[in-house]
Amino acid sequence: MRFLSTLPLLLGAAFALPSPENIQERATGSLASWLSSENTVALQGVLNNIGASGSKASGASSGVVIASPSKSDPNYFYTWTRDSALTFKALVDQFIAGNTSLEPLIQQYISAQANLQTVNNPSGGLCSGGLAEPKFEVNLTPFTGAWGRPQRDGPALRATAMIAYARYLIANGNTTSVNNIIWPIVQNDLSYVTQYWNQTGFDLWEEINSSSFFTTAVQYRSLVEGSNLATQLGKSCPNCVSQAPLVLCFLQSYWTGSYALSNTGGGRSGKDANSILTSIHMFDPAASCDSTTFQPCSDKALANHKVVTDSFRSIYNVNKGIAQGSGVAVGRYPEDSYYNGNPWYLNTFAAAEQLYDAVYQWKKIGSITITSTSLPFFKDVYSSAAVGTYSSSTAAFTSIVNSVSTYADSYMSIAQKYTPSNGALAEQYNRADGTPLSAVDLTWSYAAFLTAYNARANVQPASWGASSAKLPNSCSSGSATGPCAAATNTNWANPGSPSTPTSTGGSCATPTAIAVTFNEQKTTAYGENIYIVGSIPALGSWNADKAVALSAGHYTNSNNVWYVTINFATGTSFNYKYIKKAQDGSVTWESDPNRSYTVNGNCAGTATQNDSWR
Ligand code: NOJ
Ligand code: NOJ
């Protein structure tokens, strides 16, 4: 049915009528045939960008997703937690839909994340905020340059990706792998979310430090499915249960009356594809058109779709002359100036995907309800739309479903029009003429194509439990600190036994304790001594009287170093500082912030931390 409206074009092509549309159709082929060839290109495009064997990811560790092979202008040869999680969520869904060859890669991703969680980085350590570090080097070492950090959507999205695979494993009788490998990683991410959801951070575009609609939404989702997973495993996540309703309550506060404000700060209109992405990543095929969880077919999400996509109609030359109700090129937000502000493939696909999802939901529910909130959206695609409910037996229902399907396809056609013939998807395409721009072969562009393609084909992801959403009577802020420990088991072949820590590459029995040597550079005068004090009992629980003394045994004129070696249980995380005690007993503390450390497992059983007084 949705192809009816393209029929005249196809006929035109057959008779070679000399109109511009015909030329376009003949040049690129029909949408359906492009979609099916692009589907192959997109999957390969994703796989090329995943280490260790991806053809464009040379140097990336196993299971590590590079954002793009581009190493300059811009340099995207890093692994972002967000891009990786969204990519693997798409791959898990492809795997569940039948592409069984993807399973080893999914397991490699999960193992890599177990390791990555323990990497101390500028946002912190495993249990001190480090999970929201936005990006790492592709060999899983920290990226230490300046960046918009923290980005608090990462842990939530990663939990969601891993839970999707966990659900599959449980349904297929492999609960052991979920209990022993996946749950410990997921639990750390959930604890991150329950502790920090109410704090500001950088948005998904890495520019504004405030609260962000997408971030809050995906945090809510992770807590719901995290809690459900815990229950399935006979465990619990009490903090998920206590915080989720508060997060959901907060999510409602972004609504402006006509669209979702994407960021609470930044001084922009807040019209942003952030919110369209929110609708597709909150989509639950088992849910109704509920606006509290911003379901794609909800009145708020549809009203928002119109406001956000309309914001790009007049500003991009490539959108000139395109009528309301027909798809346009979609960017991040109208005020964008990155590469002069252009449409992005992934946002154009997302605009289509939301509409495919909505059509699925209406058909499943058996009716479409138009409210005064969503009326402007419907008027664009069905001019006689009026507030009310149209059951699936009415002609109006059929007309609306058909025209929204056609409308969705028209966004895909825009992307098609500006995709080169080899199918390569960069990050952006030029607002003036549609030429591809910025990072080449952006993994997320390919992943966004795959999810839109499946939405169009009615290949649905699993339900995540959106229907259970229940708003509390009143909103409040909140935070709950939960369990946090290094996940050390990545032994998929034998999930019952912890495996070799991945960081060393060698083969050994996991040491239960690691001897960590702390070297602290500090020039001291005779009679002064250096101590280490920290958040755990072994380091005096921040009590200077119980601090552990360092030795001056390695101190020389040219190397003013104090040291001490302390044994810790593998996986321990703590904060610490060095202090100086003078002969009279007076104590000088290092300046803030506290340092943090996580005791990662390794074959050697030893580790060294080099610091200098601050
Ligand atoms: C790099 C970020 O990845 C991008 O999102 C941002 O727009 C630019 N920096 C400019 O801040
Ligand atoms: C810039 C985008 O704004 C951000 O969302 C993305 O994570 C990075 N590029 C990497 O693709």
UniProtKB/TrEMBL annotation:
Annotated active site: 203, 206
Chain residues that bind substrate: 147
A Pfam family: Glyco_hydro_15
Database matches in InterPro entries: 6-hairpin_glycosidase_sf, 6hp_glycosidase-like_sf, Carb-bd-like_fold, CBM20, CBM20_glucoamylase, GH15-like, Glucoamylase, Glucoamylase_active_site
Protein name stated in the entry: Glucoamylase
Lineage, highest ranks first: Eukaryota, Fungi, Dikarya, Ascomycota, Pezizomycotina
Protein's organism: Aureobasidium subglaciale (strain EXF-2481) (Aureobasidium pullulans var. subglaciale)
GO CC annotation: fungal-type vacuole
Single GO molecular function: starch binding
Signal sequence range: 1-16
